[in-house]
Amino acid sequence: MSGNIVVPCLLAFLIGIVAGMRAMTAPAAIAWAARLGKLSLSGTWLAFLGYAWTPWILTLLAAGELVTDQLPSTPSRTVPVQFGTRIVMGAVCGAALTTSAGSMLLGAIVGVAGAVAGTLGGRAFRARMAAAFGGDRPAALLEDAIAIVAAFAVVLASR
Fold first, then answer.
1. Which tens digit of pLDDT belongs to each residue from 85-142?
2. Which end of the chain is more exposed for a tag (fewer CB within 10 A), N or C?
């Protein structure tokens, strides 16, 4: 393991938070970074994230998530399937960001921690913002924007 693991682990935690807020935004950002050559995943089990179609597919899934999140029938992010998906995405994205530092396992663990924090913290943040705004939609849109900007910032910082 490389001695320079602190920054990749911080980025893994942050992308985990993004995955906790919006499960598909994090892997879409990671896939674009891999596809555009900003994140080297070749020779790892995550190399598929850099394949030609992967970023497009994950971007469509992320866009779909942004739309379905607005629907009243969408289950809470803390139900087992939703929470589990966020944890898995946090682990995968965290592992991707620590590949170059030589510790995918540590990155996955830190990504999971970030996903738990992002899931629970994002829910609390959105509830407070919905109360402040007098409605959920503005709070949801604000959370969407924060997740997208944060994912972009993490990917830029990973260079």
1. 999 999 999 999 999 888 999 999 999 999 999 999 999 999 999 999 999 999 999 9
2. C
Amino acid at 135: G
- What's the token pair of residue 124? 């609390």
The span from the CA of 159 to the CA of 59, in Å, is: 21
CA angle 47, 39, 93 (to 5 degrees): 70
| 8 A C-beta contact, residue 4 and residue 147 | no
